[in-house]
Amino acid sequence: MLRIDGKNIGFAREGIQILSDVNFSVKSGQILWIRGDNGTGKTTLLRIIAGVLKTFSGSISFYSQEEARNNELKDIYNEEGKQHDKTLNTERIEKKENLARNHTEVENKSVKQSEYTHCPYKIVNNQSLGDTHNKLKTANVAESALCNKAKHDEKRETKKFMGTGVGENFTQKIQPHSEITYIGEKLACDEERTVLENLYFWANLRDRTHLLQATLEFFDLTKISNIEVRKLSSGWKKRVSLSKLLLFNSKIWILDEPFIHLDKKSIKLFTELFDLRLARNGIILLVHHNELDIDDKKITGLELG
């Protein structure tokens, strides 16, 4: 179980105040839905939470279950000021955690049974992933260096990120570079390469090649896997970009307008994926202008501006 807290967040650019005194809290199984007019700092806030923007006031804290529990007890004790109240609330919290733990154990068993077990080198449209690897290697030797550099940069950025308002206990439990997937407005695809080559490159960044086949099938990308991204429609490009959600399989998703260019069928597909992520104790933070077809009880709203 995780929790993310933002306290008194402020951000200014060239003397213009973009964000001021923004506060939020979101925990496992919830969506933080960020809304507001243009120019109110929605994208800026996502970039701060993702660790892309490092110069800001206030704090962003990531807590594991135990640390979140300790902080909740601390808050209760400070507010009530009585030891017996703390004891009563401790029992209440422990009861909830036991129920959650039992649910998680059942859930984990079902996850293991339903996990994809496809061989990552299965043939896709007469092109295996092994062929793709060799093609990338021979077509551009620098690709391998780029991949290694990306891994190195992620580790380096993680160290910087850890020093920017991230709870210490978080570093012991999960690593931000592997447990956060941030997808901004830009597609971040190499449009000169095929869909499969892009996915293979992303998978290598986080050692997720074993999830390639499952990702291709879930998002119905197999039929276009050998097509260069530049030849796809805007909707399919967006679907390729969002496929990183399943490919990276991280606990925290940070998404900026994820449904732009998607048709109703695709939106339904990703909404189902959101529900699945939340059911498995993930956290989703997103900017989105239209209504969400998700249980209101799972949504925490944040209005900017």
From TrEMBL:
UniProt xrefs under InterPro entries: ABC_transporter-like_ATP-bd, ABC_transporter-like_CS, ABC_transptr_haem_export_CcmA, P-loop_NTPase
Sample GO molecular function, one term: ATP binding
ABC transporter domain segment(s): 4-304
Gene3D superfamilies documented for this protein: P-loop containing nucleotide triphosphate hydrolases
Keyword Translocase in annotation: yes
Keyword Nucleotide-binding carried by entry: yes
A GO BP entry: cytochrome complex assembly
Keywords, sorted A to Z: ATP-binding, Cytochrome c-type biogenesis, Membrane, Nucleotide-binding, Translocase, Transport
Name of protein: ABC transporter, ATP-binding protein
